[in-house]
Specification:
Blueprint: E1 2-3, H1 12-17, E2 23-24, H2 35-44, E3 49-51, H3 54-62, E4 70-72, H4 79-95
Parallel strand pairs: 1-2, 1-3, 3-4
């Protein structure tokens, strides 16, 4: 994963500790770069981009036939709802098969 600069770099360590290959844009020297530069890096490194900037990155994603993926979050969650979302997300991340396992994620259905 590649975390956009609007996503806290504090989540890099917990995701890395859980076995995920994740970097923040600041780790790649991309802080302050335009969205298209960040998107291109995510594509070049075959990474899922994580951002709260859905509008711009969805537009960029629509221009590509193939990319690593895009995860967007809304800032409109209140604290109670956000707390209820994170455990479900964490369970989904832990269940996700590792790359090269032969599991075809496009066929998976998520609850």
């Amino acid at each position: 994963m590649l975390l956009d600069e609007n996503v806290s770099p504090a989540i890099v360590r917990p995701l890395s500790d859980a076995g995920h290959d994740v970097y923040h844009v600041r780790d790649r020297g991309l802080t302050g770069q335009p969205d298209h530069v960040i998107w291109r890096r995510a594509i070049d490194e075959s990474r899922v981009l994580v951002t709260i900037n859905a509008l711009d990155f969805v537009r960029l994603g629509e221009r590509e036939e193939l990319h690593g993926g895009l995860i967007t979050f809304s800032l409109r969650l209140d604290a109670g709802r956000a707390a209820s979302v994170h455990p479900a997300r964490d369970r989904a991340i832990r269940r996700r098969p590792r790359a090269g396992s032969g599991f075809d994620e496009s066929m998976a259905r998520h609850p």
